[in-house]
Amino acid sequence: MSDPSRTPPPSPASRPSRRTVLRSGLGLGLGATVAGAGLLGAAPAQAAGQNGTPLCDEPGDSASAQGLGSGDLGIPYHREHDNTWGYVFGDAWTHIQQGEPYIGSPVMLNQDSFDASGASPISFTWAMPTGGAAGQLFGYAHRADNGYGFEISRIPNDCIEFGGRTYIQYTSVYTWGGPDDPPWVDGHDGSLMSGVAYSDDYGVTWTDYDYHWDGDHRGINQSMYGMWSFAGIDPDGWLYIFSKRWNGTHRNSADGGAIQLFRIRPDDFRAGNFGAQQNWAYLNGSWQWTGSATPPSVILSGNNTGEFSVKRIGDTYCMSCFDVVLGAIFTRTAARPDAVWSTPVPKITSVQVPNLYGGYIHPGSASASSLTLIVSQWNGTVGAPPYWVRQFDGVNPTSVV
Question: How many Å apart are CA 226 and CA 318, to the nearest integer?
Fold first, then answer.
């Protein structure tokens, strides 16, 4: 987030094409994972609790009771105003088999209470935005120009509520690289822009902040502000945010997995005063917090990183990252956002969940050594459910099996 008065620093929707791209883009990584069992090891054992329980795409499940048959992501967040839980999905359909009727993106289902022990799986008890059947939260048209340029869909990356307001950070997608989409250019991330939408009625109505972070098709390819994860408000009073390049297709060959860190006071964030951020940067031989004039430095890098999630669980910061090359979700921890992070450990692999992605940390996890992860899976079989969202409990982010 740079000063909005300045240029940001560089660095009926049919979504089957995205999953086609996902499938082809992951082919090498998934094959390497299966063939390289010695590298990732056998499927890691899980503690007591849910171990891949599907939360949608099952006839008669709680998602279908709320009007959602098929959807992915299921990003969890705490609705602090009433101590309930929300789950934000990407593109979603009312039927289990992909096709019409299409609901849209993002879509939200909610839950009265979450069982952190994992003894009972997540069960959705009502849908937004009206409390009736699930519907698209944002008011925009798909495969249209909504005033910023052509966009296919707006995909949520994370959600947080504090101070009576709910926020979703999203990426507007210009192309998924499919046969019905605008042409894909290798090395480009396919985004239009990124933005933050907010709701002052806990998810019923949504407003976009005026400022947007330009993406690939607005002149800033590989913007490091493409995907965010809200780590939460630390006891020091700052809201910590991690961000990286958009890599929703998992085909972004120019994405080396870089992640950056910035922070902002909650009141400034609420006011849209994004220029008030401070950046974690390596400057003059040392790491330090700087003003927005100095861009953040890369704190972590590695294999192409798809979806990622950072949350403060107890007194520990926990991170999960989808490693596109290895086809696995890795986890690590740190005492603070700006501290040294532990060595990444593979926790959920394609041996357990073929065609996996996502891997969002539930903020209500039992502890920093017993996380709940929400993992997406795509099924390329014609006529089968296209998406699953699966629940894994008891994930110890630093234990090596």
Answer: 21
